[in-house]
Specification:
Layout lengths: L1 H10 L2 H7 L32 E3 L7 H17 L2 E5 L5 H16 L2 H4 L11 E4 L14 E6 L16 H25 L6 H4 L5 E9 L11 E4 L5 E6 L5 E5 L2 E4 L7 E5 L1 H6 L9 E3 L8 E9 L9 E2 L17 E2 H9 L7 H6 L2
Parallel strand pairs: 1-2
Antiparallel strand pairs: 2-10, 3-4, 4-5, 5-12, 6-11, 7-10, 7-12, 8-9, 8-11, 13-14
Helix pairs in contact: 3-6, 4-6
């Protein structure tokens, strides 16, 4: 199996190349064990749930409206770990052009894309299939363009592929602006000052992933992305109309239906720890795409640039702790955080489990 994986990786064609070649069965290393495969035919008699949708249009109209939105965000982050925002100030034309630019990159012949194909995950621009290809037991049916947009070493604009450069640079500006508004709401939901999370540099490191989920001839045997939680602070997701994202809620999985103009926000492991468990980082996954048209999504991960103290460490914010609410997580170092992510495939809350008191 290792030899097959290496051979696939060295072609630099990605799953888009496999799909475009017209294969009718997927390579063995993409096949997941039966217990981890999603049920593509859920019980239709069950009433479908959906993640909360929060309208930001009145956020600055008056104190009462803002307070109401803060409560909605707090409840969603505490009970779901996911929510969708609308009327956030980014135009539909910007959303559409961002998605189209990522589609245009992935639609190029792999011979052109291959100049960006690599496995070094920190810094710069990286195009690859499965960033954890050599660390996971079964690969997932997607390719990604990864770009480091924020501190400590943001990519130079000229390093971004020309076919999507203008749109990606513009998107990062818009996404950071909206992301910092949501960070204010999340901070105020914990009883902290609105600017606390920005002050702690929680929006400084931004990693953008432009995912492509090509048509899969055997979607019942694999996944688009394995079930996992995001290790960082907060994630902003722009998805196209095809859908396929699912969120774990209770004992089941909930489909996240695309909303025109909507952006999806989710809590990362880091925010769960910093909030001392008030906000929840929740498992999510993406189904393998059975549509002939490739599914495209743009994911922006928000992370901090300045770790606290010396040696560098983090844990629950002291302002949130009391005799009634003691810390439920210990402090951890930057090295622990990095080692935990890069030593394995995508998984759920492994760092949280290690540092739980």
């Amino acid at each position: 199996m290792e030899e097959e994986v290496k051979k696939f990786d060295e072609t630099k064609m990605g799953v888009k190349g496999l799909s475009d070649s017209g294969i009718t069965s997927i390579p063995k290393f993409f096949i997941h064990p039966p217990e981890s495969r999603p049920d593509l035919h859920p019980n239709p008699s069950q009433t479908p749930l959906t993640i909360p949708t929060i309208d930001l249009s009145t956020i600055n109209s008056d104190h009462n409206h803002r307070a109401e939105i803060i409560n909605q965000v707090k409840e969603a982050a505490s009970n779901w770990g996911f929510f969708q925002i609308i009327n956030h100030g980014i135009s539909q034309s910007v959303l559409s052009s961002t998605l189209q630019s990522i589609r245009s990159f992935h639609d190029q012949p792999y011979e052109i894309k291959s100049k960006y194909y690599k496995r070094e995950e920190i810094g710069g621009v990286m195009y690859a299939s499965n960033n954890d290809l050599y660390r996971t037991k079964a690969a997932a049916w997607h390719d990604s363009l990864q770009i480091w947009m924020g501190a400590p070493a943001p990519v130079k604009a000229e390093e971004i592929p020309e076919i999507c450069r203008k749109e990606i640079v513009e998107w990062d500006v818009w996404c950071k602006e909206v992301g910092e508004i949501v960070l204010e709401l999340l901070s105020e939901g914990l009883g902290l000052d609105a600017g606390k999370f920005k002050e702690l540099t929680f929006s400084d490191v931004r990693i953008l992933l432009g995912h492509c989920y090509p048509y899969c001839p055997q979607p019942d045997l694999t996944v688009g992305i394995t079930a996992h939680t995001d290790p960082g602070f907060m994630t902003v997701l722009l998805q196209d109309e095809i859908g396929g994202l699912q969120v774990k809620h209770g004992d089941g999985w909930v489909d996240v239906k695309p909303i025109s103009g909507g952006l999806i926000i989710n809590v990362g492991d880091f925010l769960q720890i910093v909030s001392n468990g008030e906000y929840k980082s929740v498992q999510h996954r993406v189904l393998a795409n059975s549509s002939k048209r490739a599914r495209i999504s743009v994911v922006s991960f928000f992370n901090l640039s300045k770790w606290r103290g010396s040696p560098n460490f983090y844990g629950p914010l002291p302002e949130l702790l009391s005799a009634e609410k003691p810390a439920i997580y210990r402090n951890f170092t930057q090295q622990e955080f990095m080692d935990n992510f890069y030593s394995k495939g995508l998984d759920a809350k492994s760092l949280i489990q290690k540092i739980q008191i």
